[in-house]
Every structure is written in structure tokens, then in C-alpha cells.
Write a structure and sequence with these properties.
Elements (H helix, E strand, L loop, with lengths): L2 H6 L2 E4 L7 E4 L1 H4 L2 H14 L6 E5 L2 H13 L2 E7 L8 E6 L4 E6 L9 E9 L3 H12 L3 E10 L5 H7 L3 E7 L4
Parallel strand pairs: 3-4, 3-7, 7-8, 8-9
Antiparallel strand pairs: 1-2, 4-6, 5-6
Helix pairs in contact: 3-4
């Protein structure tokens, strides 16, 4: 499937979660077996060589990240919301639009100097992705590349990553919020 065919599988839900927002619902893409497989194939072509693992951001980053890790033959590192790990995690607090959040990882899953590919379903402002990259670096990893299914370029997240020295790639873009 082409990227345009994949983009056509994503449903736009107007006025969710608030008036004026056009929510990009990827569940219609992941429910389509061919679409999900093609998405992973396209993402695999964008992955840098010689990575040690893929880190996926909870929750939908787990879908794409785990599938991509299998496709690339590497391990998967879950970047979790606070309080979800059964071991002593390391974490990073970061700002959301109207609140604070925290993400955590098990530091034992990351080897010093390992190249880790960061994956999520969508990049908007880049706050969560920046926090995840910072967290991986804090654990000793090298995080130079991030992959996303969808980019909302008007919100500036991919540019924010690039300004921080992290290459950002997506399969498709949607205008607006």
C-alpha cells in the first residue's frame, strides 16, 4: 500500500476532544491488517542501521514500536506512564498543554551507548517525544532518530526534535490540529 492509501485509512473525528480539533483516529488503520503491515514495512525502511532496540511510547507507540522491533529483529523498550513498572524506574517529568506528566523506563533495559530508535503513533507538539528521548539519554542510550506514523507539522513537534539533534520522520502529515 502507498502512503496515500494508508493516510486514507485514518479517520478524522471533528470537534474531539474539544471544538475546533480534528482528531486523527489511527484505530481504523490498525484494524486493517494490510494497512498495519504496510505501515510497519514503510517505517522499517526509515529506520537507521545498527540500532540495538526500539523504544515505544505508551500506549499507541507500543503497537508500532513492538511490531517494528520484531520486523527489525531487535528488542523493544516500553516507555511507560508513571507507576506502571514493577521495578525501580528512572523518569522524566514534562509539561503537557494544561498539565504535567511523567514517563518512566526500566534502566536495566538500556545499555550504555546503545543506539535506540524512538517510535510513536503521532507527533504534535513534541513534548512527550522530547521527554522520551531525554529519558533514554539519561539511561545511557544514544537516541538520534524518531519515527512516527503521523505528523501534525503546524504544531512544531518534529521541528522541535530536529532542533535538539534528533532526526524525525513520519509516514504522513495532516494539516491543522
Amino acid at each position: 500500500m502507498t502512503r496515500d492509501e494508508l493516510k486514507a485509512l485514518i479517520r478524522t473525528v471533528p470537534d474531539f476532544p474539544a471544538p475546533g480539533i480534528h482528531f486523527r483516529d489511527i484505530t481504523t488503520l490498525i484494524a486493517d491488517g494490510r494497512g498495519l503491515a504496510a505501515s510497519i514495512d514503510h517505517m522499517a525502511k526509515l529506520a537507521p542501521p545498527a540500532i540495538a532496540a526500539v523504544a515505544g511510547i505508551e500506549a499507541r507507540g507500543f503497537i508500532f514500536g513492538a511490531a517494528l522491533a520484531i520486523r527489525l529483529g531487535v528488542g523493544f523498550i516500553p516507555v511507560r506512564k508513571a507507576g506502571k513498572l514493577p521495578v525501580q524506574p528512572i523518569g522524566v517529568d514534562y509539561a503537557l498543554e494544561y498539565a504535567e506528566a511523567r514517563i518512566e523506563i526500566d534502566p536495566m533495559l538500556v545499555g550504555e551507548g546503545e543506539k535506540i530508535l524512538l517510535v510513536d503513533d503521532l507527533i504534535a507538539t513534541g513534548g512527550t517525544a522530547m521527554a522520551a528521548a531525554q529519558l533514554l539519554q539519561q539511561a545511557g542510550a544514544v537516541c538520534e532518530t524518531a519515527l512516527f506514523l503521523v505528523d501534525l507539522p503546524q504544531l512544531g513537534g518534529a521541528e522541535r526534535l530536529r532542533e535538539a539533534g534528533i532526526s524525525s520522520h513520519s509516514l504522513m502529515e495532516f494539516a491543522g490540529h
